[in-house]
């Protein structure tokens, strides 16, 4: 026989695949119940070892994963058996978990031949599939029983739902035969052995049994059997022959027939029909989900006739269907063997999820039990088992014939409970807990050892809601706690407050409806409203209904009347009766008292767990929490890793209610607070939702139609945010219009929300948005019968669709729904969809076109070619990215600029490669050299704001700083030879002219430049790289996941987002250390890249984009760029150490960086290396080289092509030089470079670089006291930060606004606005990573409060600034912030001198120590020296050393003249006059103007502020006790 394969089927074919031929070709005209009798052969196959396999999966893996693997193993095995049965002409009647029942329907005269055919099929199954090894080391074996004889088909149900079952002697015998079979055996029942052709079958008898074991078929060859087979097929009425021999079932070729399809659909659950109608793939019908299983077993009296039996089963099926339909329950299976008739019912299938499904299932089971028990004359025993938990819900079988079923431990447990606890309704502990019904409705049953069940837990007998509840107030299930503040409900509370105001003093009632699913916080909200009403002085009656209360008529009225009559607290009937009689006497006739007997029956409710409490409880039960007492003075860890600490503060009384008691749970007084932290190595992203929360989310998912469910589930694969393009790509055979219509409906239902850009979604997530979990309907109750405007509805629908079409990014409104929908997929389905997403996104994984479309880690993909090849083989992805010019407008600029601007020759340029290599061999080990050259990527712009700032160029100053004091020689400005000076000035002038020419040319082509888009790298990272990393990790492609995590980290550094860079590196580190990754050999290049990138978040700035070279050099260049970047970091780190050897290593590393750049022949890298080496030489005091290499960098830039990376390199060089000149005190040149760099950034649309330029430009203008220009630059910075939504830019802006207030005497933003910004954003993860900026902000706020003598407000910002000191580098921002912190300490020292002399010694020691430290840091920013010496002079003065104070004040004046620091000079002049030359007291103009400083508007000049240069804070000198200026602190008597 040839192997036959199924063909594609129509809709009717898909429906027929769920129904056997016995039904498809049956008679649909008969009334129900319908009985049909016939002869046939039955095959019952049971998989041996399935029970052991179930136990293995349940103990070794998680339940969900175990059910999924179990089902996949079963499906592969069962599918092969089904195919073999179909090939031999059998009809699969039923699937029952690990078993199947097949039928060969024939005439009585043909029975012997068909028995032989069925036996041949059975033996073939045993031969090919009799034993199969599984992945966990267990064997699957099949046991087969055969029977033959008279069979009856019974069809029961109603016009909507119909079910069939077969019964008769043959059915009973086939089950008994299978029970006698051992693994890999085929047993013939007695009747089957009687009817077969005994001459063809070799058997073996079974002791004490009439059944026999078949061994083989004898006296027939394969050729003869083929002839016999085709002869037998003529007896099989619906066997596909002739033209249909290529398919397994004739039903696959059914022609469309509406009547037939309508009849067949009655045998398939509506949930499945919806998905078939929606044309969803077969595998999408399977998922893992929490459900409630109800097994109903009916044992009949032996005297019941077949006709009566059919009527009973019919009546019971209709009754069960009607009972469970109310709660969206479904009958999944009906079958009958020797154990009686069994119904398998399921609550919570896809589309049917409800909040109280466990309670509904128990209620339904009890009603079914009562109904069946009344039929005692026909039904002997009724047994029902109810369980709840996660199971596999999906397709079992073969493509041609399959059924929808449920498989899992909970299914097995319910079936066993049904048989081991007969005559009652039993349930497991999970169902008992989830029902939230009173304990009095249950009775604990004794433990019973059940076959195939390990640790079943406590089993309960459900007694039903048979007892009347006691009278009492229906109290709220949630109490308001001062430790749990209600968050995210501002909108709901605002509606309540406004309604309450309207109600007070009015005679009109108000109704507010808050609608939401279980667990959305309605109880918490109600408790908060009750509290607010009581606080306002109103009498509040708050009550909450439970499932039991809802079933009672007029419950609310009963409760209110009980409270009014004062009987809500009565415990006995007699007490209640007495009170009622006393109060109703002379009001109601005594004869009517009896009418009140059944009225006042109320019951307290049982609460619903809220999200946070449920999650906390779940973590605690899994032993993932650690508790320890919270100490009030305990400081939070300020390290980088502290950003990722998982910490909760919990009150002990709240904790006791939130989580169950456990060994590690704290137990103490109610006033104690505990810190709750997550245990180490716990990955929260891998923890599945608790069943309760998952049930809540699935209830919402099941309220959607099948199309909406498919969209939500596919979107869940992509993530919380997703693009509509990617969603359309993974949706199975969907059109864009259909997707848009479905998305519009989901947006309207508050499932999704729209964003035009991903940046908008990030902004929305970071802000406190009104909750969309509750639908609030204040005062909008529509009268019954009012019909909404159809036109308005259609208009809104069209408008919503247009909104969806326009939006590019969407997001889930509720993350819990996304996680629950994601968990519904099977593991194999998840992997396939993740792979589909990854293959789609991979082609977009590169920088934006404006930035050259390369890797964020230079030539990363070429350094790890093998990894890329492996992923391409999965989806045949082979997409190359060619280099595009920077822009068309930039190309036009070059056409003329390059002709006009010919740069000077490179006279005197020299290469130091040989020298560097020789030095390296003598100072570094070969291993370190190899690691440096092979690891770490991305060519980064070396002039980052945080680390790469100019150093002090004078050796005398450096020596003086080592001694922690200033020498007079340091005041001498370095002087070059006249000819060198002229050459430098000429080159700098030519560079400025070149920038002017580029700007001028770009103005001519401005129209074309305006059409260019901005840099899109940020959107690409969020929408491509981050999801790619997640998809790869989900697929188990950990090497590839590491690749994209590193790309993400490098990209965020490129975007100056240090926090997100560190987050990705933290994830990468956890991946490298994980067990799953240890077996993988990490690429050495990527390992080095990881360690290099981990040092990057300390810096701020953009990376230099290399120009793509020829293909054969790409891998070598990747290593060269990595080597250069490592060397860049090394020399900067060595520069922070004052040891002599460190200086040598610093010089060596910087020189090696030059060699590496020159070897790469990349002009951008070479220019960067020259700038860095110049900076290094400045710090070392090498007077011959620092200016030489600076000029070489400028000269080299003249040969750059001013397109692509060349133009960007020119702009960055200008920014770097502006920063360098600012720190060195060449303020005029810094200002000129800054303005030009800003103009070019605006034209090239590089906002990330522009905000760095504006920061440097403002500082140079501010120190030059060009206040009008300062205000203009600040307005540019504010506009840029607002438009680009750059939190770092806003922080810098407000930092500078505070500087204007403190040191200029006017305001651009008020102090209140600045303080509000800090308080609102100080917990922002990105700002937390910017230590230097936050140091300046906190110190400025502390200075403000100290100057105004608001010491109570001073402490908090001062302490926050103090904790940041040790985390800052020697950058300009850090040094500037340190200077402001030093001023805070000085003001506090003065306060202690005046008010608390006993603290002076301690404060003085700390202040002098910090003064020495800030002096050493000024070596990188000499422009800060005047401020430091000004403050040092003041310290000496307040400590009584007037002579030394005058010396340092004089030195500060000279430094101001040296560096052009006019701002500090104006303050020094006032201090000098106040301290030494004033004849009388001076007026403090700063304190006079504070706190309401006059605002400098755009367009104002210094003429509007006549005394601006005198509005400085006067550093007062306190009076000291001459005899005891610094007394020792008094020690109290013990």
Question: What labels would you give this structure?
Answer:
elongated; 25 strands; disordered N terminus; 52% helix; alpha+beta; 1534 residues; 8-stranded mixed β-sheet; 11% strand; single chain; 9-stranded mixed β-sheet; 61 helices
Question: Low-confidence parts, pLDDT < 50 over ≥5 residues?
Answer: 1-7, 467-473, 600-609, 633-650, 661-665, 764-788, 870-977, 1098-1112
- Biggest β-sheet strands, sense, barrel: 9 strands, mixed
Report the C-alpha radius of gyration, rounded: 41 Å
Q: What is the number of helical segments per DSSP (H or I, 4+ residues)?
A: 61
Q: Give helix % range.
A: 40-55%
Strand proportion = 5-15%
Q: What is the β-strand count? A: 25
| Straight-line distance between termini | 105 Å
Morphology call: elongated
Q: Structural class from helices and strands?
A: alpha+beta
Please characterize this protein's 3D structure.
By secondary structure, this protein is α+β, with helices and mostly antiparallel strands. It contains 61 helices and 25 strands. Strands 1, 2, 3, 4, 5, 6, 7, 8 and 9 form a 9-stranded mixed β-sheet that branches. Strands 10, 11, 12, 13, 14, 15, 16 and 17 form an 8-stranded mixed β-sheet that branches. The longest helix has 27 residues, at 978-1004. The radius of gyration is 41 Å and the shape is elongated. The termini are far apart.
């Amino acid at each position: 026989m040839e192997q036959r394969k199924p063909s594609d089927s129509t809709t009717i074919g898909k429906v027929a695949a769920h129904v056997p031929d016995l039904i498809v070709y049956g008679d649909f005209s008969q009334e129900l119940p319908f009985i049909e009798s016939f002869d046939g052969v039955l095959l019952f196959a049971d998989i041996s070892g399935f029970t052991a396999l179930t136990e293995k999966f349940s103990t070794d893996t998680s339940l969900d994963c175990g059910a999924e693997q179990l089902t996949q193993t079963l499906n592969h095995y069962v599918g092969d058996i089904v195919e073999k049965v179909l090939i031999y002409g059998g009809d699969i009647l039923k699937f029952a978990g690990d078993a199947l029942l097949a039928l060969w329907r024939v005439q009585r005269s043909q029975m012997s031949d068909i028995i032989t055919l069925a036996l041949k099929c059975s033996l073939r199954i045993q031969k090919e599939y009799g034993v199969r090894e599984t992945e966990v080391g267990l064997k699957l074996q099949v046991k087969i029983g055969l029977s033959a004889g008279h069979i009856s088909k019974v069809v029961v149900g109603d016009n909507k739902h119909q079910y069939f079952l077969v019964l008769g002697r043959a059915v009973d015998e086939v089950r008994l035969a299978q029970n006698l079979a051992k693994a890999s055996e085929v047993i013939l029942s007695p009747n089957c052995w009687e009817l077969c052709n005994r001459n063809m079958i070799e058997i073996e008898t079974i002791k004490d049994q009439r059944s026999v074991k078949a061994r083989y078929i004898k006296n027939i060859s394969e050729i003869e059997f083929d002839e016999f087979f085709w002869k037998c097929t003529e007896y099989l009425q619906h066997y596909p022959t002739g033209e249909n021999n290529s398919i397994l079932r004739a039903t696959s070729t059914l022609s469309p027939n509406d009547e037939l399809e309508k009849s067949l659909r009655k045998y398939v659950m509506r949930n499945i029909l919806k998905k078939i109608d929606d044309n969803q793939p077969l595998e999408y019908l399977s998922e893992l989900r929490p459900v409630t299983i109800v097994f109903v077993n009916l044992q009949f009296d032996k005297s019941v006739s077949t006709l009566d039996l059919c009527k009973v089963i019919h009546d019971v099926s209709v009754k069960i269907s009607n009972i469970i339909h109310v709660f969206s329950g479904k009958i999944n299976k009906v079958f009958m063997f020797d154990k009686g008739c069994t119904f398998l019912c399921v609550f919570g299938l896809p589309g049917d999820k409800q909040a109280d499904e466990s309670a509904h299932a128990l209620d339904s089971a009890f009603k079914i039990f009562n109904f069946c028990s009344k039929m005692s004359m026909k039904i002997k025993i009724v047994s029902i088992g109810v369980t709840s938990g996660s199971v596999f819900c999906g397709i079992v079988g073969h493509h041609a014939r399959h059924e929808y079923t449920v498989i899992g431990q909970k299914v097995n447990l319910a079936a066993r409970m049904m048989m081991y606890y007969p005559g009652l309704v039993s349930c497991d502990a999970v169902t008992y807990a989830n029902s939230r019904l009173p304990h009095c409705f249950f009775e604990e049953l004794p433990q019973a050892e059940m076959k195939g069940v390990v640790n079943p837990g406590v089993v309960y007998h459900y007694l039903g809601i048979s007892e009347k509840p006691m009278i009492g107030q229906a109290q709220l299930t949630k109490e308001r706690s001062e430790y749990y503040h209600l968050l995210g409900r501002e909108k709901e509370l605002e509606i309540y407050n406004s309604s309450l105001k309207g109600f007070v003093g009015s005679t009109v009632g108000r109704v507010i409806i808050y609608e939401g699913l279980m667990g959305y916080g309605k109880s918490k909200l109600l408790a908060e409203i009750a509290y607010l009403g009581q606080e306002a002085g109103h009498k509040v009656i708050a009550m909450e209904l439970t499932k039991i209360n809802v079933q009672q008529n007029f419950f609310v009225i009963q409760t209110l009347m009980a409270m009014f009559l004062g009987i809500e607290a009565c415990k006995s009937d007699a007490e209640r009766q007495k009170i009622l009689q006393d109060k109703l006497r002379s009001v109601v006739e005594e004869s009517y008292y009896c009418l009140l007997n059944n009225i006042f029956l109320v019951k307290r409710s049982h609460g619903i767990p809220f999200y946070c409490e449920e999650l906390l409880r779940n973590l605690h039960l899994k032993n993932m929490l650690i508790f320890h007492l919270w100490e009030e003075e305990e400081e939070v860890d300020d390290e980088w890793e502290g950003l990722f600490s998982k910490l909760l503060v919990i009150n002990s009384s709240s904790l006791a209610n939130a989580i169950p008691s456990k060994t590690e749970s704290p137990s103490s007084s109610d006033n104690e607070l505990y810190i709750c932290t997550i245990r180490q190595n716990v990955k929260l992203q891998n923890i599945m939702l608790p069943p309760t929360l998952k049930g809540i989310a699935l209830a919402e998912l099941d309220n959607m139609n099948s199309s909406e469910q498919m969209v939500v589930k596919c979107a869940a694969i992509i993530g919380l945010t997703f693009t509509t393009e990617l969603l359309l790509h993974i949706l199975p055979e969907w059109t864009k219009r259909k997707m848009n219509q479905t998305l519009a409906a989901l947006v309207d239902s508050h499932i999704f929300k729209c964003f035009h850009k991903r940046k908008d979604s990030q902004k929305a997530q970071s802000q406190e948005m009104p909750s969309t979990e509750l639908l609030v309907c204040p005062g909008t109750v529509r009268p019954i019968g009012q019909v909404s405007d159809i036109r308005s509805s259609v208009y809104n629908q069209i408008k919503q669709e247009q909104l969806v079409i326009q939006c590019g990014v969407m997001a889930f409104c509720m993350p819990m729904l996304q996680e629950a929908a994601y968990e519904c997929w099977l593991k194999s389905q998840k992997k396939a969809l993740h792979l589909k997403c990854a293959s789609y996104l991979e082609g977009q994984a590169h920088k934006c076109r404006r930035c050259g479309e390369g890797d964020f880690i230079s030539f990363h993909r070429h350094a790890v070619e093998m990894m890329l090849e492996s992923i391409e083989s999965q989806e045949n992805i082979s997409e190359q990215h060619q280099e595009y010019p920077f822009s068309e407008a930039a190309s036009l600029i070059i056409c003329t600029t390059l002709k006009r601007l010919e740069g000077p020759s490179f006279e005197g340029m020299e290469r130091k490669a040989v020298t560097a290599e020789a030095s390296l061999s003598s100072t570094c080990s070969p291993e370190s050299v190899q690691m440096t050259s092979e690891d770490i990527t991305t060519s980064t712009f070396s002039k980052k704001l945080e680390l790469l700032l100019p150093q002090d160029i004078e050796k005398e100053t450096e020596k003086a700083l080592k001694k922690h004091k200033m020498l007079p020689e340091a005041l001498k400005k370095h002087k070059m030879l006249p000819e060198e000076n002229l050459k430098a000035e000429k080159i700098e002038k030519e560079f400025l002219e070149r920038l002017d020419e580029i700007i001028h040319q770009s103005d001519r082509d401005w129209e074309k430049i305006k059409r260019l888009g901005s840099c899109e790298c940020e959107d690409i990272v969020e929408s491509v790289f981050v999801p790619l990393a997640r998809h790869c990790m989900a697929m188990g492609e950990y090497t590839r996941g590491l690749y994209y995590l590193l790309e993400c980290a490098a990209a965020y550094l490129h975007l100056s987002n240090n926090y997100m860079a560190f987050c990705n590196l933290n994830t990468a580190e956890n991946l490298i250390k994980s067990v799953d990754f240890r077996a993988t050999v990490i690429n050495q290049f990527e390992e080095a890249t990881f360690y290099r990138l981990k040092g990057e978040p300390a810096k701020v700035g953009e990376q230099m984009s290399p120009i793509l070279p020829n293909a054969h050099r790409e891998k070598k260049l990747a290593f060269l760029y990595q080597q250069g970047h490592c060397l860049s970091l090394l020399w900067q780190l060595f520069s922070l150490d004052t040891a002599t050897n460190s200086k040598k290593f610093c010089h060596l590393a910087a020189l090696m960086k030059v060699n590496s750049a020159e070897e790469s022949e990349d002009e951008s890298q070479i220019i960067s290396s020259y700038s860095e080496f110049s900076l290094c030489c400045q710090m070392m005091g090498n007077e011959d080289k620092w200016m030489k290499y600076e000029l070489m960098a400028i000269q080299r830039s003249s040969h750059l092509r001013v397109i692509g990376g060349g133009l960007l390199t020119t702009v960055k060089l200008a920014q770097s030089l502006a920063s360098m000149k600012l720190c060195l005190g060449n303020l005029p040149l810094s200002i000129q470079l800054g303005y030009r760099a800003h103009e070019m950034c605006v034209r090239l649309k590089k906002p990330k670089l522009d905000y760095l330029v504006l920061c440097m430009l403002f500082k140079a203008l501010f120190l030059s006291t060009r206040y009008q220009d300062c205000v203009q630059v600040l307005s540019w910075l504010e506009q840029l930060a607002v438009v680009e939504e750059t939190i770092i830019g806003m922080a810098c802006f407000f930092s500078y606004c505070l500087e204007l207030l403190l040191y200029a005497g006017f305001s651009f933003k008020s102090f209140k606005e600045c303080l509000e910004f800090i308080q609102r954003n100080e917990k922002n993860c990105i700002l937390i990573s910017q230590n230097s900026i936050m140091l300046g902000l906190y110190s400025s706020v502390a200075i403000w409060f100290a100057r105004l003598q608001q010491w109570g407000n001073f402490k908090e910002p001062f302490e926050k600034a103090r904790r940041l000191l040790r985390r800052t580098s020697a950058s300009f921002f850090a040094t500037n912030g340190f200077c402001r912190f030093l001023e805070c300490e000085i003001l506090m020292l003065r306060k202690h001198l005046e008010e608390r002399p006993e603290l002076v010694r301690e404060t003085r020691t700390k202040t002098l120590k910090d003064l020495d430290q800030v002096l050493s840091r000024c070596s990188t920013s000499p422009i800060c020296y005047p401020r430091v010496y000004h403050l040092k002079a003041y310290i000496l003065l307040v400590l009584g050393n007037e002579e030394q104070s005058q010396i340092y004040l004089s030195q500060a004046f000279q430094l101001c003249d040296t560096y052009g620091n006019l701002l500090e000079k104006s303050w020094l002049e006032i201090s000098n006059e106040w301290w030494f030359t004033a004849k009388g007291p001076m007026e403090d103009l700063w304190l006079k103007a504070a706190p309401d400083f006059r605002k400098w508007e755009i367009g104002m000049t210094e003429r509007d502020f006549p005394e601006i240069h005198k509005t400085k804070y006067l550093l007062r000198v306190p009076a000291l006790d001459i005899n005891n200026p610094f007394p020792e602190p008094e020690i109290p008597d013990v």
